[in-house]
Amino acid sequence: MIHPRDWYVEIVGHGPDLVLLHGLGASSFSWRHNRARLAQHFRVITPDLPGHGRSPAPLDADYRVETLVQGVRDFLDWHQIETAVLGGNSLGGGLSLLTAAAQPERVNALVLLAPAAALTRIPYAFYPLRLPILGAAVAAFLGPWLLPWFMRLVYYHPDRLIPEAVAGYAPPYRDLRRRLALRQVCRQLEIRPLPALADLLSHLTLPTLLIWGEADRILPAAQGHWLKRHLPRTEFRILPEVGHAPQEEAPAAVNKIIIDFLAHSLNNDNK
To answer: CA torsion sign, 80 to 4 to 93 to 161?
Structure first.
């Protein structure tokens, strides 16, 4: 397991701790348009998960979901965070859900943006990396030059976002070893059966904010409706003309929704 002291992390602001985890193949760069605004109300903590961004990416590491969840718990311990609002986008949202299920006493609320939870298959964009032999060739070819193509899947309005996004996400993709490490992450991902997930979610009574882009082509909004039905205390917001990364494509709306939700949820829970 990669020790959390070695995780790259950015911490800004003061107030209740708000830990935000990025999605698969992304990094803490995902929160570039959110940190400053949210930091007016919270201490915003945005790490790079193992195998991503500027955190270590050894090829022989254990990147299974349960290990990543334990890593998030160890990260909280290392930074002496007793309780926090925990959230994330895509993979980061799924890890947040599972971390809260494992240690609900440490999570004050959940902020989930298109979380990878109610899946029945690995998204097609990542599936080739899982293949036994072809996957290594795909990883070798998966340089920064493919990022514009991928961004066109992620964003509803890609053209206005691609230049900045490619510049921010490209550095790790220039390193073959890091691309091969991402392949290892993809290969070790497992899908939790929906009945088992529904049972797990039924016991989560934390206030939960669920934000989804109506035009999400990676994880369709139908998964959000499924999660809403199975999470007892959920506020569900769908954003029109937004894709898989609402915090990047509609940051002003997302920031306001998060601030308003947590102002209400945390105040109510402290009464």
So the answer is: positive
Q: For the chain, which residues make up each domain, given as ranges?
A: 4-123+192-269
Instruction: Please choose, from the candidates 89, 94, 106, the residue with its C-alpha nearest in 3D space to the C-alpha of residue 20.
Output: 89
Tell me the whole-structure pTM to 2 decimals.
0.95
Q: What was the pLDDT predicted at 128?
A: 85
Low-confidence ranges of the chain (pLDDT < 50): 271
Share of the chain above pLDDT 70, in %: 99
In the 8-state DSSP scheme, what is residue 15? S
- Say if CB 213 and CB 243 are below 8 A apart: yes
DSSP 209-270: EEEEETT-SSS-HHHHHHHHHH-TTEEEEEETT--S-HHHHSHHHHHHHHHHHHHHHHHHHT
Handedness of CA 196, 202, 203, 204 (dihedral sign): positive
216: which 2 tokens? Answer: 């999400």
What confidence score (pLDDT) does residue 126 get?
84
Local structure of residue 106 (DSSP, 8 states): G
Q: Which CATH number fits domain 4-123+192-269: 3.40.50.1820, 3.40.50.620, 3.30.70.20, 3.40.50.10310?
A: 3.40.50.1820
pLDDT at 39: 98
Residue 110 has a CB neighbour count (10 Å cut-off) of 26
116: closest CA among 88, 74, 135?
Answer: 88
Q: Report which of 49, 137, 43, 151 is spatially closest to residue 92, judged by C-alpha positions.
A: 49
Q: Which of 165, 167, 145 is nearest to 155 (CA)?
A: 165
φ, ψ for residue 4, nearest 5 deg: -65, -15
